[in-house]
Write a structure and sequence with these properties.
By secondary structure, this protein is α/β, with parallel strands linked by helices. The protein is built from seven helices and seven strands, in the order αβαββαβαβαβααβ. Helix 3 (75-89) runs parallel beside helix 4 (113-139).
Length: 263
């Protein structure tokens, strides 16, 4: 099912970073509710961060979800992918950006500049290129009262994390970016909100455990007062809420799903 017929099912949504983890969970939840969904992610393996990133060709997603491959660090690929998503869905009313990556392991002041560039590229730059490519499409979407942007940031967006300085700096930058974007798009009634997960059971958390020299990502449970990790579908549920009519009056909101980590 493609084109205008899909737009009749309700607001259509593009999910950037949908090959696995929180992005895949969001795409599955949104598609399961009957929404038209386009899933966007890397189209081939990417070794730049030192661990395996998801790619859209291998993503375990239902057939009704449109798959589009692109590296959102590249503005030209982002622009092309956005237009492909619009073509597949008939329109794009909402944008979800879950893509990100972690680097680090040592002291921030000793980190090479390339580590900072990687963190910014895989987090802030990906977010910016997605926003830049999709906002013009949201402005001409078929559901003007439902236009939303939801990003996934991190509890690292408002606190320091030893050993993850470059990642933390990039997440702080994302929060500043999103607050400004919310202000700028408010006059067009496009809501901009974000979810800040605590330690969530994903491949990225496995990589973080490796950077810290931990035997298992389960060791992060001790930093969350609930004594457990967050599951990807819990982040997906928060995203779904921020895209729903119940969140129509919200913009510039940081929705924490962190098992108490930020207390």
């Amino acid at each position: 099912m493609a084109g205008d017929a899909m737009s009749d099912s309700g607001p259509s949504v593009a999910v950037v970073g949908a090959a696995r983890g929180m992005g895949r969970a969001a795409a599955l939840r949104l598609a399961g509710s009957g929404r038209p969904v386009a899933a966007l992610d890397l189209e081939s393996p990417c070794p730049d961060l030192g661990y395996e990133l998801g790619n859209i060709a291998e993503a375990d997603l239902p057939d009704e979800v449109a798959r589009i491959g692109a590296d959102f660090r590249d503005p030209d690929q982002a622009a092309r992918a956005a237009l492909e998503a619009e073509g597949a869905l008939g329109c794009v009313d909402q944008l979800v950006v879950t893509a990100g990556g972690v680097v680090g392991g040592g002291r921030l002041w000793e980190a090479p500049a390339d580590e900072l560039r990687l963190a910014l590229d895989f987090n802030l730059v990906v977010l910016h290129n997605a926003v830049r490519a999709f906002v013009p499409l949201l402005r001409r979407g078929h559901h003007p009262t439902s236009r939303r942007i939801v990003a996934v940031v991190s509890v690292a967006g408002d606190r320091g994390l030893w050993g993850l300085g470059a990642y933390t700096a990039a997440k702080h930058a994302m929060v500043g970016y999103l607050r400004t974007l919310a202000l700028e798009l408010a006059e067009e009634r496009i809501g901009v909100n974000w979810v800040s997960p605590g330690s969530t059971r994903t491949a990225m958390l496995d990589r973080t455990a490796a950077l810290y020299g931990l035997a298992s990502a389960d060791e992060f449970k001790q930093h969350q007062p609930f004594g457990r990790l967050i599951e990807p579908d819990e982040i997906a549920a928060a995203i779904e809420f921020l895209l729903s009519p119940g969140a129509a009056g919200m913009t510039g909101v940081d929705l924490r799903v962190d098992a108490g980590m930020g207390l």
